[in-house]
Amino acid sequence: MKKYIIYIGILIAGLLIGRFALGGNSTDSHATHSETGATAADTTWTCSMHPQIMAPEAGDCPICGMDLIPAEVGAEGLDVNEFKLSKNALALANIQTSIIGIQTENVGGLTLSGKIVENEKNNALQTTHFGGRIEKLYIETTGEKVRSGQKLALIYSPELVTTQKEFLTAIKSKDKDMTLYNAVKNKLKLWKLSETQINSIESSNQIITNFPVYASVSGIVSKKMVDEGAYVKKGQGLFNISNLSTVWADFDAYEKQLSSIKVGDKISITTNANPNKVLEARITFIDPILNSKTRTVVVRTVLNNRKGALKPGMFVAGTLSNNNAKNQKNTPLLVPKTAVMWTGKRSLVYIKKSADEPIFEMREVVLGNSFGDLYEIIEGLAIHDEIVTNGTFTVDAAAQLQSKRSMMSAAAIDAAKLKEAALNKAPEDVERLEVSEKFQGQLAIVYTNYIAIKDALVSDDPTQAAVKAKTFTTSLNDVDMKLLSSNESHMLWMPLLDKLKMAATRISNASDITEQRSQFISLSNNMIRAVQGFGVQKTVYKQHCPMANSDNGAFWLSNQEQVENPYFGDMMLKCGSVEQTIN
Questions:
Q1: Strands across the sheet containing 132-137
Q2: Residue 512 maps to a domain
Q3: Same structural domain for residues 435 and 541?
Q4: What is the rounded distance in angstroms from the CA atom of residue 107 to the CA atom of residue 397?
Q5: Which of 159, 464, 499, 543 could cross-link with 456 by S-S, CB 3.0 to 4.6 Å?
């Protein structure tokens, strides 16, 4: 009997244990189900091959094209894009954070870039007041200094010789008829002959065959418009003379910066030639018309240049007084520049999510104006947010190692968008990017070899076109992409490089000039994008033939305004026109 009681007790205990076990599992299952349902709408998608990719919705991986899969929530209960660093790692990497507050003190001024240009108010066009032939020029080259009253040229004027003969005749009858004498004398004065010259003609009773032209102003000859032996008409220009005792500093201001700028604001200016010397000035003019291509407005100041140290074309930087930043209607929210990272068109920061724990998350922000070492934040952050201000890239590396959303994943998404945009953008819509002069110099060599291909096609020479295309490809391979510092410039160059290589290779492999000219269309379109986007340190003419490409029209680049058509050669050498001048 005792044995049966023991068996019954064991059975009852088993039933109780099973009940509690089943009940617990049911509850856990329900909780898990509820949690899954609650977070389904907030799922972040990633790539199994590239875990750095984090997207808010399903789609294809911008790197490999594979389908994105849902990302898993971290084991520590963190959100999918949050990650945690140890306190030792923070100390070793010297990672520092700052709490954002509105700053009104120690704010650097808004910085603008620009260049020195001639003061148009001081420019003068030296003209001739009578027609004739240039017998002698005393100005040989542009850049020469002239002073007011200096002899510039000698002109033989048949019309003036005839008038002098009339004047000599009028002198003889002066005692009888002063009216004719005065009329002819006034006619000579209208041709800007001086009283001394007129009296010399009258006293010597001799006709002057070659009349001098004197400078009406002092300055520098900025343009020579005639040569010896040329015939000129009355009122025709001989020289452009620029007085560089004062010059303009023209700065480019973006739309979002205009609220911080007004006429009369103080601006401190430095030049690349002498960065240690600061010139103080005030803004005298703000262009009322916005440049629709660059989205900028010209902001101008006048600078004293009596010593001639400021040369037109010099690059300058201007910093507005920090009072301009403080006096804005809305005080800006500012962060150190060291906190911001860029990926294409995106600006990113890392925000510390917890005051007690080193938990971080990447945040996309919209930047405003630049004030010295600070950026204005338009969107993405708020007062009292704590952000990483030192060691930002170290934090980003940690995010990549933990397969969290990082600069790399954002860059990959931006890269795909930029590459697609670069290929689809019309050549004329490509905006000029800031790149190093060394990169421009390397691209200039590529452009020179492009011109060699163009000249071979103009000469109807397929053999030479193939040879020059190989040289073009060699120079293309010599271009150092590491010189492109910004992601945007890198993303513009990469697809252009592929297209240029492909077109040049096809030209070099083709023996038929018709096929070469067909591939030259693609080569030219992408070369136009490159020259438009980066510049080649010279003036380039974009030309167009409406009959090329089966009457669909085609473009090409040239060093000269004169049209020489590479698509038809001698058949229609002059067919086409200059569509744009690219500086």
A1: 210-214, 151-156, 132-137, 231-232
A2: yes
A3: yes
A4: 31
A5: 464
